Amino acid sequence: MPNRQSHRSWHRLTLSATLAVLSSLIACTSDTATGSAPLVGAWRSTIKFETGAFAEIKDLEFMYVFNAGGTLTESSNYDAAPPVPPAYGVWRMIGPNVFEARYEFFSTAPSDVDAFLKGAGWPPSGRGVFDERIEVSRDAQTFTSTIRYEAFGKRDEPLEGGGTARGVGRRIGF
User: Fold this and answer.
1) What is the CATH topology of the domain spanning 41-171?
2) What is the pTM of this model?
């Protein structure tokens, strides 16, 4: 009898240990909600603003990198006019091949002429916020999007000039 009980205990212990090891392996290899998403990677998009301060720009383009884990970096072909840094933000999946992103950048304004000539350059003037809804194609090589832009001053007060846009993107690859 004691031999049979210790044999059963040994089987239970072995089974428990095996399940624990398998569970930890599965947990270590499973993707996060954004880790395997079709949005992850580098993209280039043409942007057409329908309203707001950017509506007069006809050749606006964005380049994005959507990182696994839900962060993103965006830069435009107008980042140097006026000089502004890239935008940084977050994104998440809200449905099959549908995502939402929010990213922000610091805005600048020229200093007065005398200060500019002394090297003051383009001091901070506020920030811009983009909210974008992105739908990725089935083959994950293109997307369409809608964008809402809001502008804020140095004290975080809303400014005029916000607007809406549509985007068409394609994956950057070899």
Assistant:
1) Lipocalin (2.40.128)
2) 0.76
